[in-house]
Design a protein that fits this description.
It is built from 8 helices and 10 strands. The chain is an alpha/beta fold. α7 (198-204) packs across α8 (238-253). The structure holds adenosine-5'-diphosphate (ADP) and magnesium ion (MG). Belongs to the ABC transporter superfamily.
Length: 258
């Protein structure tokens, strides 16, 4: 493989606290993600998934080891990165459109220049007629879509997502999975997606990295060779079932219960 690595992590360890109260959240994490690749981390609650994401986003520091994006050590939030957290954290006093334009304001980019992109993305997410609405006037699924549109508005190369659909009902979640796949295929972002749903992982991923319970380590790196675009019926195929079984057995073997 000669594809350039967009993300490279080596020997990464994260401890919270010191002395007898110290807690090792991540232990010797190493992986690299190629440009345009869709990589999914799956692991039990508390295994350090969010910790890893916060380090990649530049909101937290590793205790040891290195984490690089495009060959540069991560020292803080980056312009080329979009982030989606588990809850969409929208500002209630901003309209949908103004929430979407938040990164433009924060990065001090030109609002006028990005307005068309914002509207185009809102339209793609089926939210065109809601741009003047406030977050509390939208359903949970719609709010989460606003969060995703916001993460894309400055056209970042990397999209980092921490259980973005965890709070949604099953139907909405499936629709969002399909939507995300479509966006990714259209715009070819490098994606890191965190979940504790095995089926969501297999449905979305080029690669599934399976983590152990705390301290989180990577036990397996599984390439998902299912052609795209994948629709929801792919979940009924024997091959899909094989991948799901492989991931589940690994999680069971490490003592993680999904
Ligand atoms: N800021 C923090 N201070 C102390 N402990 C933390 C902090 N953030 C997370 N932890 C602990 O680190 C472990 C991993 O947490 P987290 O990364 O949120 O796991 P996950 O996202 O996989 O559920 C947990 O035991 C959690 O309690
Ligand atoms: Mg988490």
């Amino acid at each position: 493989m000669t594809a350039k690595a967009a993300i490279r992590v080596h020997g990464l360890t994260k401890c919270y606290g010191v002395g007898s109260g110290a807690l090792v959240a991540l232990s010797d994490i190493g992986f690299s993600v190629g440009e345009g690749e869709f990589t999914v981390f799956v692991g039990p609650s508390g295994c350090g998934k969010s910790t890893l994401l916060k380090i990649l986003v530049g909101l937290d520091r590793a205790t040891a080891g290195t984490a690089e994006i495009q060959g540069e050590a991560i020292t803080g939030p980056r312009r080329d990165t979009g982030v989606v957290f588990q809850s969409p954290v929208l500002f209630p006093w901003r309209t949908v459109l103004d929430n979407v334009l938040l990164p433009i304001d924060v990065l001090r980019l030109d609002r006028k220049q990005h307005l068309a992109t914002a509207r185009e993305l809102l339209s793609m997410a089926g939210l065109s007629s809601f741009e003047r609405h406030y977050p509390w006037q939208l359903s949970g699924g719609m709010q989460q879509r606003v969060g995703i549109v916001r993460a894309l508005v400055h056209d970042p190369k990397l999209l980092l997502m921490d259980e973005p659909f965890g709070a949604l009902d099953a139907l909405t979640r499936e629709n969002m999975n399909m939507e995300l796949q479509r966006i990714w295929m259209e715009r070819r972002k490098t994606v890191i997606f965190i979940t504790h749903s095995i089926t969501e992982a297999v449905l979305l991923a080029d690669r599934v990295l399976v983590m152990t319970p705390r301290p989180g380590r990577i036990v397996r790196d599984i390439r998902i060779d299912i052609p795209r675009p994948r629709d929801l019926s792919v979940a009924n195929t024997p091959l899909f079932g094989e991948y799901v079984r492989e991931v589940r057995e690994l999680l069971n073997a490490t003592g993680a219960i999904d």
